[in-house]
Amino acid sequence: MNNEKILSSKKRGRKPKNQISEYVLNKDRSKFFVDLSCEKVELDLIFGLLERANQKDYGREITFKDLALFSVTKLTDKDLEKIQESTLSDMEKVERALIEFNKKNNSNLTLGEFLVKRLSIN
């Protein structure tokens, strides 16, 4: 029981609205699961790749793990930037544009003022 309290350092309950959560990497993690039950197109792509990869006469069966490990080594910084960009919500994109605008123009506009200015609303 004491070990459970020591391991869980996260606070429970509601988080403040403006709190930015920090990602902490758990390097003790050794198993990763990918649930593609809802992503039909991606699942078909993976099955197609596995079928093509296993059309051979010799060697063991190529698994999803083999594809994933090989693919991870090919990721570039640009690929990671695209992945990061794809995880942003619409509101986060707007907030980022606001921050960049304020830095560029040395201003301190609120989100509402920025949207009025950007959309040319009088």
Structure write-up:
This protein has 122 residues and is mainly α. It is built from six helices and no strands. The chain has helices spanning 2-7, 40-53, 64-74, 77-86, 90-105, 111-119.
Helix content: 40-55%
Number of helices: 6
Shape descriptor reads elongated
Global Rg: 23 Å
Low-confidence stretches: 1-6
Order of helical and strand elements: HHHHHH
How is the main sheet built?
Answer: none
User: How many DSSP E strands?
Assistant: 0
| Beta-strand proportion | under 5%
Outline the secondary-structure elements:
Elements: H1 2-7, H2 40-53, H3 64-74, H4 77-86, H5 90-105, H6 111-119
Explain briefly what this protein structure is.
By secondary structure, the protein is mostly helical. Helices cover 54% and strands 0% of the residues.
List the main descriptive attributes of the protein structure presented here.
122 residues, mainly alpha, disordered N terminus
